[in-house]
Amino acid sequence: MAEYFKEPSRTFNEYLLIPGYSSSECRVENVSLKTPIVKYKKGEKPALTMNIPLVSAVMQAVSDDRMAVALAKEGGISFIYGSQSIEDQAKMIAKAKSFKAGFVPSDANIRPDQTLQDILDLKERTGHSTTAVTEDGTSEGKMVGLVTSRDYRISRLDRATKVSEFMTPFDKLITAKEGITLHDANDVLWDNKLNALPIVDDEQRFKYFVFRKDYEQHKKNVNELLDDGKQYIVGAGINTRDYEERVPALLEAGADIICMDSSEGYSEWQGRTLKWIRENYGDTVKCGAGNVVDRDGFMYLAKAGADFVKIGIGGGSICITREQKGIGRGQASAVQDVAKARDDYFKETGVYIPICSDGGIVYDYHMTLALAMGADFLMLGRYFARFDESPSAKLMVNGNYVKEYWGEGSNRARNWQRYDLGGDKKLSFEEGVDSYVPYAGSLSTNVRQSLQKVKSTMCNCGCTSIKELQQNSKMTLVSATSIVEGGAHDVIKKDVSSNSSR
Ligand code: IMP
User: Fold this and answer.
1) Distance, CA 442 to ligand 1 centroid (Å)?
2) 403 by DSSP, 3-state: which?
3) What is the DSSP string of 228-253?
4) Helix or strand or coil: residue 83?
5) Is 319 considered catalytic here?
6) Over residues 208-232, mean pLDDT
7) pTM (2 decimals)?
């Protein structure tokens, strides 16, 4: 006979945290959000720890090299999407790994024979007012000058004027050689009252800018997640089909951690992939598995050798899997069940396997709930898609700025490897939609604000670490009427765009 779960399938919206005793030590500045991302043995330290419990989804609309750098600066990890060719994914990883904090490569340079109009067009397109002039106009060409907005007055200068006539020529510039440390570059900026310092190689080829404002900003990134060589930690998604070619290429490009990306991971395919990784790399390559929604799924992947296990089927904002196939589970129930399995597995074996709640985070407080229910970290798609750093287009729709956000199972992404269980190698029907999400600005501002709320709630619960929150929090189910009570009610609101997150 079929097995029936006793409890209904619950979502984060159905829970609230009950405050615990907050001592005077429970202050936001004392809260640590450090969390393990890969399995470790009792008494040992995990090989990789994040400074914040957030990773970005393995999706075309979310995680590319730019997102990877932005999130690592804040202390989390991006899993660069795998629904692209192996070469393209490896290039994105290499690009994110080659990023040197504070050293900005140019995305657009100009030739000396181009015009003021070209400079203005470039500024409009890139938003940058400092442009390197290189012999051939390429981003690493031989540097011959620099143009900043102080070099021309639009009202006085004919737009056909050649760049060479108003640029500051190379011999009048203060530059530095590749290899200079960020600290020393900053001294040059201050000693010479500069805003931007061009860095060139031995052949005078342009390499980077160091900006005074970036250095100040950089010093504020206290959580950045760096490897031993001071490069940002970067993750990558893989599938259970072409891993024998993809995994070596991603590792070669510098990926620090990989994750199988599948809508349903309790499968022989994931077991085979993990086996291949262990046979070829032992424990040196860290690989997450999933997604699962119950104890059985977790235990299978734990025994198969997963370094972390991802939870969630059907709860993603762009996901229509539950409607299409009738599989899945409310995200809160799934996290609770898998967290219990993770703890039991730890008791039995002495091996702690971190779990990740993937999808369905709508409000910031859902983050705290997921952690309190036992998640070690969270994967988010919609949340990150809204930021400047996501790869998708920013558009104006009905007078509002939005960004595009589409599911990996939508016709647009056609990521059949994520959905196909040994079938016909094509996406037979959609499991995701193509959508817009409200544009929200920079990742840094938003992540800091969200995590400030998480920390504040943790203090209310008397906890200063994620472990304490998992062990000590108290939660209650809410009734439909108490949800109404929880929002502003029985008043005439003045401003619809108020602070309320609902
Ligand atoms: P969100 O944070 O609620 O937007 O959910 C993001 C998560 O949804 C991802 O990390 C995936 O696990 C999942 N996902 C991505 N694309 C699809 C899709 O097309 N259908 C179903 N789930 C998806």
Assistant:
1) 22
2) strand
3) TTS-B--EEEE-SSSHHHHHHHHHHH
4) coil
5) yes
6) 86
7) 0.87
